[in-house]
Amino acid sequence: MTLTSTSTKFRALGAAVVATLGLTLLSGCGGEDAGTVPDGWGTLDTKSVSVGYPEAAGYAPQPAAERGKANAAVALKVEKGLRTGMVSVQLNFATGVGDAGEAAAAAGAGIGLGATRKDTQDVRLAGEESAQEARRIDYEFTSSGEESTPAKGTRMTGVVVAGVDSKDVPFAIRINAVKGELSPADLDSFVGSVTVR
After folding, report:
1. Per residue, what are the HEC states of the chain?
2. What is this structure's pTM?
3. pLDDT at 105 over 70
């Protein structure tokens, strides 16, 4: 009887181990993981990356016919006819770029004169393991007041995340907003929402 009881315990333990292994395999252990998109956020999807945007805060996707040719995807926050926030994805925006550092240098050059860099750091993104290395640049700038942007002199906050996808295509993902409209936690969530393919 003891043997039967022990055997039953081993069978139960074996079933639990098999179930755990099955769940691990289904969850993609060692494979592609995805960024964490917070509740109340939407997602912009492109062939190289996907990124979250704060939909509940008023951001909405811009139709392809309305966005600039350099942008693969855009979400805008428009208030009283002014673009007070933007999330954009640019792909293949520079030539001769082979890694995250080079992508960040090219993307950083596009931040513009008069911008103040606040921080630059290496980050690890979710997604294809070969393409997870990226660089984050935090900066501030002053709105020009042109092209439906906030009044001239308005301080703006920005973050750009740059890297190279698994097919060696450089990407730059930006979020800009009127300073104070997005918290540091929101900006961290933006970076954490990225999945690179």
Report:
1. CHHHHHHHHHHHHHHHHHHHHHHHHHCCCCCCCCCCCCCCCEEEECCCEEEEECHHHCEEECCCCCCCCCCCEEEEEEECCEEEEEEEEEECCCCCCCCHHHHHHHHHHCCCCCCEEEEEEEEECEECHHHCEEEEEEEEEECCCCCCCCCCCCEEEEEEEEEECCCCCEEEEEEEEECCCCCHHHHHHHHHCCEEC
2. 0.81
3. yes
